[in-house]
């Protein structure tokens, strides 16, 4: 049985959601990031992590999503296809333009580390706003990011929107809010959110 290591309110939510989408039984060890318990649970303390049945520990939420998608042939497009390139492009764009600034924003909100100077805080807020604006402007005329089928790229963007909303950083853009509303209709999202 797979074991998700990490607190559900973090990027571990992506792994829980993915496993629910795939209907794969799993355990969830609720370990908070940046704690001694995290360092005790996984090498280097980097969470979230997925422990495989043989004890191998995988780290980095997007890498784990790709691993599971490829292993089970689900929520992904075939390697070498245009759709796969679109899917991967979205994952990289969201990781760079939204996920990274959102992690910095979260650190500020949680008071982790020394307080940032106002210019740094403003720069991170601007980066996040630009990332969301770029995503909104690039949303396709299809239900999901890489076409008609829901993929791991949708898990990453859906989670970032979910995360931004928790920290009152979700923009008012109607396109992003409509996309998030579609995401929230997925039973696996609801199951992961309640775990």
UniProtKB/TrEMBL annotation:
Pfam families with a match to the protein in the record: GST_C_2 (PF13410), GST_N_2 (PF13409)
Q: Which UniProt keywords apply?
A: Transferase
Entry annotated with the keyword Amino-acid biosynthesis:
no
UniProt domain GST N-terminal: residue ranges? 1-76
Name all GST C-terminal domain ranges.
80-195
Source organism's superkingdom?
A: Bacteria
Q: Which InterPro entries match?
A: Glutathione-S-Trfase_C-like, Glutathione-S-Trfase_C_sf, Glutathione_S-Trfase, Glutathione_S-Trfase_N, Thioredoxin-like_sf
In terms of Gene3D superfamilies, this protein maps to: 1.20.1050.10, Glutaredoxin
Q: Name one GO molecular function term.
A: transferase activity
Protein name in the entry: Glutathione S-transferase
